[in-house]
Amino acid sequence: MTTVDPAADVAALQDVVDESRIRALHADYVDAVNRQAWDEFEDLFLPDAHLTVVKGPSATDEVTGPGGIGGLIAGYVSVYEFLIQTVLNARVRVRHQGDPDRAIARLYIAEFRQVTSSGRTIESAGVYHDEYQRRDGRWWFARRRYDRIYATAPKELDVHPYPTDLPFADGFGRRG
C-alpha cells in the first residue's frame, strides 16, 4: 500500500497552482501585446521590472517599469498593421533558489507581422528569460530578457545564435 505525505501533497499542489498562474501571466502579456493594450502592463510588471531586448550582436534596448516597457514595445510594433505573437513553449520553475515567492521561466515565442508601408510580411522567433516575484499574493514579471533568434529580413534570413552570454544563471542547466 502506498502512503501519501499530506505535507508534500500541499506543497506540490501549491507549485502546480503557482505554475498555472505564471502561465496565465504569459497569456495576459501576449494578449496585451496582440491588442496593443500597453496600459495593461501596469497589472503585469512590477514598478521596477526590467526588460532587455537583444535584437542581434550590436542591437540591445533596455528599459525599466511598466510604462517604459510598454513604450518600447509600442515603438517596435507601431510600423505594423498586423502583429500576432504566440507562445511556442515555456519551461517554468517555481521556488527559484528555494524562495517560494520567486520563479523563473524560459519562454519561446513566435511573431507574425505585416509592415504597414510596404505590406512585407515578417516572421520572427525568440526566447525570453524571465524572473517573477509574488507580491501581495500574485505573480508579476520582475525581469525579462528577450533574445531574437530568427527573423526574416528584407533580403535574406536574419539568424542569431542561441544566447550563451547571459549575465545570470538561468536556473535550468542541462536537464533542469
Mean pLDDT reading: 90
Number of separate helices: 2
Query: What distance separates the N and C termini?
Result: 31 Å
Low-confidence stretches: none
User: Overall 3D geometry?
Assistant: elongated
Q: What is the class in the CATH system? A: Alpha Beta
| Rg over C-alpha atoms, rounded to the nearest angstrom | 18 Å
CATH topology grouping: Nuclear Transport Factor 2, Chain: A
Q: How many domains in all?
A: 1
Give a quick set of tags describing it.
single chain, alpha+beta, Nuclear Transport Factor 2, Chain: A, 2 helices, elongated
Mind explaining what this structure looks like?
It is elongated, with a radius of gyration of 18 Å. The chain is built from 2 helices and 7 strands, in the order αββαβββββ. 24% of the residues lie in helices and 45% in strands. β4 and β5 form a beta hairpin. It has a single domain (6-159), classed as Nuclear Transport Factor 2, Chain: A. The two termini are 31 Å apart. The mean pLDDT is 90. By secondary structure, the chain is an alpha+beta fold. Strands 1, 2, 3, 4, 5, 6 and 7 form a 7-stranded mixed sheet that branches. The chain has helices spanning 6-35, 65-77, and strands at residues 45-56, 59-64, 80-94, 102-115, 121-135, 138-152, 157-159.
Write the layout of secondary structure elements.
Elements: H1 6-35, E1 45-56, E2 59-64, H2 65-77, E3 80-94, E4 102-115, E5 121-135, E6 138-152, E7 157-159
Parallel strand pairs: 1-6
Antiparallel strand pairs: 1-2, 3-4, 4-5, 5-6, 6-7
